[in-house]
Amino acid sequence: MGFKMVIVPPNTQPDWPQKIRAAVPDCEVQMFDSAEAALDAIVDADAAYGNIGPELLRRARHLRWIQAPAAAPPAGYYYKELIESDVVVTNQREIYNDHIGAHIMAFILAFARGLHGYIPHQLQRQWRPNGVEPGIHLPEATALIIGVGGIGGEAARLCAAFGMTVLGVDARRTEAPPSVKELRRPPDLHALLPQADFVVMTVPHTPETRGMMAARELRLMKKTAFLINIGRGACVVLDDLVAALRAGEIAGAGLDVYEIEPLPPDHPLWTMPGVLLTPHVAGVGPYLQERRTELLLENCQRFNAGRPLHNVVDKAHWF
Question: What's the mean pLDDT when you consider all of the chain?
Fold first, then answer.
């Protein structure tokens, strides 16, 4: 049958046109270095990849499918005209599960073994074997995973492998994976927060999740508990987190994403005790481009054959 696809940045690969044509021989593929360069080509395109903004969408007369360039694109990707259109959007969820799952466990193990206390001693060249509070014994600990999708499910599996009890909160999943003892809906979050030694946030930025971890939620956590956020920065109110840490309402935090990125050099989180920070790198790891390519090619074949696409997005909820 064949179709026309337009590819614009980001996260593109130069060999995609060749590979798409090999997978779908009748497909016409045009790749551009910018969205502006694709204004004419998008007019009769059936499919597109990348950041397809309002101007491109307005010019597109036949567009039926957009492959988003990330698992959870930045706020603004799902604008009013796109949400209200008939265009199907798919995203790149699932390709980061193992990398981000390992990053989550790195935070959990670091806090459990007191590395957040020993690292400052190392920087000060201090030998203080008794200078850190006893760690958390993982077989007696509970992890609350907020967002039990691919990433959250992998984090749950790893936590359970270390003997932890795993609770989950998810807006869409109806059945708990084997590693999750109990799966609840978002309205039950406040009832679960006091039970957790580690609160792990893997949710995307959506209208519902923005600011979902704020002063009230932090006060519900154990004073000995740790917050870990590797989902999206907008889901945690940083001013409230700083206040909770200063007040001793929680024991610490491990963050890979932030309300403001990059985190300003003068932000108090840089030097607060009990805080471990990484610069939005949890998803970094090998094989990502291969996985992006595999997903794109599979969806191109499905689109051409009229079969259901992988990772269809609920546009109104951005995920």
Answer: 97
